[in-house]
Amino acid sequence: VTHSIPACIGNMTINSKQPDSESPVSIFAVNKCYVTVQDGTFFDGSGFAALVREGYKVRSDVNITLEFRTTAVHGVLFGVSSAKVDAIGLEIVHGKVFFHVNNGAGRITAMYEPKATNNLCDGKWHKLQANKTKHRISLIIDGNLVQTDNPYIQSTSADTNNPIYVGGYPADMKQNCLTSKSSFRGCLRNLVLTKGQHAELFDFSRAFDLRGVFPHSCPGAEQ
């Protein structure tokens, strides 16, 4: 067995003595245990999850669905970019959700603004769907559809080749379709990317880099 156990461990003794768990010599990807938990992945607001080490190619079409729960009004949800300008990004800024796409000719944005700033940052689960079909983009939050016009109709492909970053991104990694540098604090679940007939559910425990991200459970209430 080469992977860690997704569980809580308590009251451990070695030779009838309890080790000092409050001040360990070293610690990596260990969070506290919660009395109540929900399915999902907990982001503590300090880091990110990196997926698809070899690079994800958005190209002409992609549909992103996920669910999020947060009490913060700022936070990066999702980004994948290229070394040039091509990129897509999802973020929460001032309680609004933004879906940015750049197919190479210029950035376009679909923005969902709730009736009140904290409507989406109320600690409850919200469902997001972001769709890019060639030069058209749309954003659906809890069933509410937002579309935007694109003046660059001849440019249809986002030629990305970098990894997918969820919940944030490294300081030295350029993200051409994200304006926020704030890491997401809260829970995410059911991240699915669909291209044509192929749908892929991403397991955060298989990320090649996890910082401040705990993939197997979310606290039942804000901690």
Automatic annotation (TrEMBL):
Which positions fall inside the Laminin G domain? 38-218
SUPFAM superfamilies reported for this sequence: Concanavalin A-like lectins/glucanases
The UniProt entry, under CDD domains, shows:
LamG (cd00110)
Q: Which domain of life is it from?
A: Eukaryota
Q: Which InterPro entries does the UniProt entry name for this protein?
A: ConA-like_dom_sf, Laminin_G, Neurexin-related_CASP
One of this protein's Pfam families, by short name? Laminin_G_2
Write out the coiled-coil annotation as residue ranges. Answer: none
- What PANTHER family would the database entry show? LAMININ SUBUNIT ALPHA-1, PIKACHURIN-LIKE PROTEIN
According to UniProt, the name of this protein is: LAMA1 protein
Its source organism is Xiphorhynchus elegans (elegant woodcreeper)
As recorded in Swiss-Prot or TrEMBL, the protein's gene is named Lama1
